[in-house]
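--- STAGE predict ---
source: upstream dedup step, 1 unique chain passed
mode: sequence only
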Amino acid sequence: MTPARTIKYAWISSVLLIILLLVFVSSCTLVRPPAKPANIAVVLGAGASRGFAHIGVLKVLEANRVPVHIIVGTSAGSFVGSLYAYGLSAFEIQKLALTLEKGDIVDLMFPDNGFIGGEKLEEFINKTVNNTPIEQFRTPFYAVATNIQTGQEAVFLKGNAGNAVRASCSIPGVFRPVKIADSMYVDGGTVSPVAVDTAKRYGADIVIAVDISADRNTKQPEGTIDTILQAVNIMHAELSIKQLSRADVIIRPKVGYVGASDFDKRHEAILEGEKAATEAMPEIQKIIENLRLEGRLN
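--- STAGE serialize ---
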């Protein structure tokens, strides 16, 4: 074989090798595994009557078609969150809230480890969700309470919805503790007022946290229950700081002027929730857009 022909064959072999390498590389890119779908959680915090603000937040998220895959609620957040996770729209919950009377959910009693029994609250939730157990809700729901015997966070993710919400809302000194199985439970805000870590533990990739305890009330409390609730709210604000640092978006409705037991300002609280959520929407939409670009969200 002449030197010229040898060079020609070497050149052809090199070209073929390059083509084969390009085919191999392109085939590798074609079998790249699909991106893991992202789960967005909304975490609704504790705050007694200020919890009406959660409804306004949900209205804005719903109006902007923000996908919600997980709902976590503590205390008042569990009350609103359970209804939304069951399948009621934010507007349906608002209509329900604006016609709600204290007597519908509050059963006052002679103080015996609490001023409020909690049975009416449990009955109201179960009636509203048609006695549907938590695990059959439209959206996965987690109600956060506190085991008063161990001091540990307790998360209810199945079973009696009313019972779980009642446990989550049982503020020490105001509600009688709830006995479930062999344990006693009180308000989840005692250990986890805005349960960001719970949401992440149960599969959330993105957490939108709603904090209704940060805006302080400067009014003097009236009566024993108001004093307890205001003291509890101060505790909630301090306890929330650490977990909120791990949230992706924090929504803080300005509800400091709403008394902890003030039903009369529920409409104002809802509006404050709407305002705060609207302010946060550009940040939320940017996260959603990035997830869609990554192929992690439809």
